[in-house]
Amino acid sequence: MNQDFIIATLKKQIQAYQGETKAEKVGVVIEVGDGVAKVSGLTECMMAEILDFGKGVFGVALNLEEDVVGVMVMGDCQKIAEGQIVKSTGRILEVPVGEAMIGRVVNPLGLPLDDKGDIKSGQFYPIEKIAPRVITRKPVSQPLQTGLKAIDAMIPIGRGQRELIIGDRKSGKTAIAIDTIINQKGQDVVCIYVAIGQKESKVAQVVKELEDNGAMDYTIVVLAGASDPAPLIYIAPFAGCSFGEYFMDKGKDVLVIYDDLSKHAVAYREVALLLRRPPGREAYPGDIFYLHSRLLERAACLNENYGGGTLTALPIIETQAGDITAYIPTNVISITDGQIFLENDLFYQGVRPAINTGLSVSRVGSAAQIKAMKQVAGRLKLEMAQYRELAAFSQFGSDLDQTTQKQINRGKRLTEVLKQDQYQPLAVEQQVVILYAAINGYLDDLPVEKIQDFEKGLLKYCATSHEKLFSKIKMEKELRPEAEEELKKAITNYKQGLDYINQ
Predict the structure, then answer these.
(1) Which of 95, 103, 128, 405 shows the smallest number of beta carbons within 10 Å?
(2) Has 363 been annotated as catalytic?
(3) Interhelix angle for 428-439 vs 467-476, to 10°?
(4) Peptide bond before 353: cis, by omega within 30 degrees of 0?
């Protein structure tokens, strides 16, 4: 009885069964090692497609050859063996984006590294994207204030610009980037700091500094550490740019810092050589220029029809012995809209930020300055250039006429004014006040060693006794005659109260 019942049940189930066929595109690993794998059988694989090796390991297709696909492994190579099955996912490499990323430290795949729990994000952006076309852009016109007098006055950065920070190791490149992030507090700018091949201890220090200054409230830190595999370091800046593009598409202003693209180029060279791509100059692959140009071209100032968002890029390049004519530095200089060149000699002389104003330039220029800054900083670069020339000439010890001596004395005081402590960015109205005093000769009778004390005292005095002056400059964005008169009065009154002037 039971047997008949079981047979009848089985017959019913067999008759009711509906077969479902599922097609999967699969290939086989024929070679693996050093972060790359070669896979055969995936004839329909797309460029930058995600491939599934199983065991939680994924890869990205980079080389599409006739018989094999060269794959960059985004995980532990030791979990992959020759003969292993590889599945095609049909998805291009993408990263999660959204508001939930703000305030977090993530890896280039968008996975959290800060022990603050999972990041819930329902939206994804591809890491490679065609840069906004010319028709979608508008000229850069709004300043992105760094809070550093030397930069905001002489090498201004605009929202949507690409300004290179270049210099030797330990010359203050990251310090400028971090100061710029700190200065965006209350400016409604989303900041993204991409650490490429950096020591994790250094990045932890940066994150702590940002937290102490309340800057992590609007910042995303993307970390591909020095111990991470080359494929992760390679995709880090592209992922950081995608995080930023999400906010730009929403009409917001974004600042992305790539620290640094020298290490990025080295990681890409490693991947390219392992994939047997032909090496070119300095063993870099032939498309090394395209690697950085397609990344930096994604920085844009969109017009109102496309949301009006901006993405400003500050790439960092490390030079060897100040050689800006090397391969990677010249490549990136030719892509960007100017460069801030930091010099070790100036750094060791105590001029910090150690900006060489002769080799530094902004190709956007005064279009990225408010009118008040243009009014006071117009003569600054010329005065500094003349000072550098005369200072070099005066080293020979020849007698100098009074005019030359006056220019050298002014130059020394301007150099002193442009010095600034780390993590102490100044608001633009404060910069206008001190630069006005310097450029109009109010500091010429001050001892050089007292300049910085004078600056701090003057700003404090203006904030208490002439509090409307700062708000007037900030609101009107220009130095009108009545504001200028008040400023002259404030400087004169403050100077009269100084003992070392009246003696």
Answers:
(1) 405
(2) yes
(3) 100
(4) yes
The DSSP secondary-structure symbol of 216 reads: G
What is the separation of C-alpha 249 from the centre of its chain, rounded to a whole number of angstroms?
18
Cα separation of 236 and 109, whole Å? 8
Exposed/middle/buried for residue 44 (C-beta within 10 Å: 0-12, 13-18, 19+): exposed
The answer, as to whether pTM is greater than 0.90, is: yes
DSSP character at residue 370: -
Percent of the chain whose predicted confidence (pLDDT) is above 70: 97
Residue 432 pLDDT > 70: yes
Measure the CA angle with vertex 116, ends 113 and 122; round to 5°. 85
Q: Phi first, then psi: give them for residue 93, nearest 5 degrees.
A: -55, 125
- Residue 485, φ and ψ in degrees, nearest 5: -65, -45
- H/E segment holding residue 143: none
For residue range 448-473, list pLDDT tens digits in order. Answer: 999 999 999 999 999 998 888 999 99
| DSSP code, position 62 | E
Out of 277, 363, 388, 480, the active site residue is 363
DSSP state of 74: S
User: What's the rounded Cα separation, in Å, for the pair 471 and 432?
Assistant: 12
The reported pLDDT for the residue numbered 190 is 97
